[in-house]
Write a structure and sequence with these properties.
This protein is an alpha+beta fold. It has three domains: 135 residues, no CATH class; 125 residues, no CATH class; 165 residues, Sandwich (Jelly Rolls). Helices cover 17% and strands 28% of the residues. The strands form six sheets. It has a five-stranded antiparallel β-sheet with strand order 2-21-4-5-6, with no helix packed on it. Strand 7 and strand 8 form a beta hairpin. Helix 1 packs antiparallel against helix 2 and helix 2 packs across helix 3. The protein is globular and about 85 Å long.
Length: 472
């Protein structure tokens, strides 16, 4: 047996007919509200009494249609569960299980619906930062396995809204310096039946700044927590040995003196609270490798896991003098103990790195990445730093992204050279290119089935083979 997706008795053919009726209802609800507002606009405050209770009922005039919406929702859910049961010869535990099985079968059989891009995709506004100058690093990417091709890789159920992310607790209020607490508030949500759905996410989440600052002997990590140890390079076991890190090389060349040292020159330190950072000296041939093992007391107790989404962030600049490094390449990579790289890599061309800090950051989606049991984060200088040139690396963090809401975007807030203060705020803006969005199957799976609530999207592709034209 197999799931029939289109054509005679196809799941999406049948759902398309049902969704089309809901589309007609959506249009009617929109038009009803608009036309009643036009009626109200014809009256002034002096004679508005003639309309009785109509102005106060404008949002509930379509209430008799709620029963139809509820019926259609139940039908759609039953169709999905029964189709999965019959097509896969498997008894799903419920709707969520059926949706996960459906998504996986679509991936296995390269079935996908239309994708949508956003006219504003996670635009970060920082006009409200009065004191702190850190950065919000956004990662709105879908898991790789359901973004099967085309230009869009974003979650398809992101709400079009402006999320205000405001610092609510700083050091003076009891937070640790460098780990200030922010509160993220989305726009007001509405019921899937409402004429203005999907509106806002209604997210209300407290977020702590991701900092390289030591967290002590902790062995528990939440999204947003830095997984690395001593990644602000404050602890040194010896002059060329940063604690919790292993300093070696990619070849077998002679080790130059002071290949890596503790830079303590204040002018070359990212945050004034810090007492130093990692300085790496080049000789034109030596290719440094500095790594930290995951899941070990000699490295970090933190681990990276498959099917998770992470963000890497750090600051890099030249150590002294003027000009630029003029050469070299630095790769941040998750690898096994033999140095074999996974797909989680970020390469920085050091050629143009100068006396201004370069912010290096990278979202890493590990949904299709096999994580070795001996995983480590390595800083590999795949091209040697030129002779006598030195760079410094500061405030290196790796953290699982904080997802604002199921089916929505994620981010972390990283520490700046000046720390945040209460009242500092950031805005995160998303806007759909159309209302409703053009990805109609994704839209109706959310409206009638609540798919994004399970943190799921249908697989997408620019050249979809399950067309929205079936909604007719």
């Amino acid at each position: 047996m197999a799931i029939t997706y289109t054509g005679s008795n196809g799941l999406f053919t049948r759902l398309g007919k049902l969704f089309y009726v809901r589309e007609i209802m959506n249009t009617f609800q929109d038009n009803l509200r608009t036309e009643v507002e036009d009626v109200i606009d014809e009256f002034s405050s002096a004679d508005l009494y003639q309309l009785g209770g109509l102005p106060s009922q404008i949002k509930t005039l379509d209430a008799p249609m709620l029963a139809i919406h509820t019926t259609f929702s139940a039908i759609a859910r039953t169709m999905i569960i029964e189709t999965v049961r019959a097509g896969l010869s498997y008894e799903p535990a419920g709707l969520e299980d059926a949706l996960r099985l459906l998504v996986q079968d679509m991936v296995d059989n390269t079935k996908h619906v239309e994708d949508v891009n956003y006219s504003t995709s996670g635009t970060v506004g920082v006009g409200g930062l009065a004191t702190g100058n850190g950065t919000m690093v956004v990662n709105s990417n879908l898991p790789k396995n359901i973004s099967t091709g085309g230009s869009s890789t974003l979650w398809q159920t992101i709400k079009g809204e402006v999320v205000r992310v405001e610092c609510v607790t700083d050091e003076s209020g009891g937070a640790t310096l460098g780990r200030e607490v922010f509160r993220a508030l989305g726009d007001e949500p509405v019921s899937p039946f409402d004429a203005t759905w999907p509106a806002g996410s209604g997210c209300d989440k407290y977020i702590t700044v991701t900092s390289a600052k030591s967290r002590g002997a902790t062995r528990t990590f939440q999204p947003g927590d830095n997984l690395l140890a001593n990644s602000d390079f404050q602890v040194w076991e010896a002059a060329t040995d940063p604690g919790r890190w292993t300093a070696t090389q990619m070849d077998s060349a002679s080790v130059p003196a002071n290949a890596q040292t503790n830079n303590t020159t204040a002018a070359y330190i990212w945050n004034s609270e810090s007492g130093g950072n990692l300085q790496v000296l080049g000789d034109g041939t030596y290719r440094h490798r500095i790594y930290q093992e995951f899941g070990k007391g000699t490295g970090t107790h933190g681990r990276v896991l498959a099917n998770k989404n992470y963000i890497l962030s750090c600051r890099v600049r030249i150590a002294a003098g003027s000009g630029t490094v003029g050469g070299g390449a630095l790769q941040f990579v998750i690898q096994d103990s033999a140095g074999n790289a996974t797909s989680a890599t970020k390469t920085l061309d050091l050629t143009s790195v100068g006396t201004s800090w370069t912010h290096v950051y990278q979202p890493w989606d590990l949904s299709e990445t096999e994580i070795p049991t001996t995983a480590r984060l390595a800083l590999d200088f795949t091209t040697a730093i030129p002779n006598t040139k030195a760079i410094v690396i500061d405030e290196l963090v790796l953290a699982e992204r904080i997802q604002l809401y199921p089916g929505g975007p994620g981010f972390i807030i990283v520490r700046g050279s000046a720390d945040y203060r209460t009242g500092d705020f950031i805005t995160l803006t998303y806007a759909h290119s159309a209302s409703p969005p053009v990805n109609e199957f994704q839209f109706f799976f959310d409206q009638l089935v609540g798919m994004s609530g399970f943190n799921l999207n249908l697989p997408i592709h620019t050249s979809e083979n399950i067309a929205d034209s079936l909604i007719a």
